[in-house]
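Intended use. Records like the one below are meant for learning the mapping from a protein sequence to its folded structure. Do not use them to infer anything beyond what is encoded.
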Amino acid sequence: MIMDLIDAIYTQYPYYGNRRIKAELNFTHEIPIGRDHVRTLMKIMGIEAIYPKKKFNLSLPDKGHKFYPYLLRNLKIVRPNQVWSTDITYVRLAEGWAYLMAIIDWFSRYVINWKVSNTLEIDFCLECLNEALDNSKYKPDFFNTDRGVHFTSSQFTEILESHDIAISMDGRGRCFDNIFVERLWRTVKQENIYLKLYQDVLETRIGLNEFFPDYNNKRRHQSLNRLTPSEVYFQ
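Structure written out for the chain above:
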């Protein structure tokens, strides 16, 4: 119950650290819990305030992996397939957690592909990327990620390089370099995952297989002049 509330508070306010989450639990939800306990639970969940540090422990790099520079600073995003980006987030299940990866087009907010896994093995990340490139008529000029171990691995970067895609990686501690994916996580959690409380990975896949087509084809964005992601992506 407490971890569920922490998850909900953190998704609403991803810049909250253990001090402010403790205050929310104490005063808004009237739960008498100490800061050390909150800190321990957040560590178990793998979350941190996104400023000044990146929020998700999955974003920790592997020292043996190659890092790429952030290429998108001051770049004007003017068309679909100019920049794709990705990230991984956790999915709260009735018991335990699953992991969701999504690839999004920056200009249109269109979700190119997504995958859910019950483990953090890299296989589901590679499958998600390969499917996105194989099933799409297009490929991006740039592909942006954080510096997490999955995305800095040679297995992942070699796929991008084989398609002549420029690799861009967030600057250390610069969570807002990938802000469009962060906003997607907030939407999918608040409008689907929290409401459904999926039992297992299979149920999660079935539920998200209904959500993402609606997100792409029916959800109108104010930032897109009230058009849907698919209308902008396939314009």
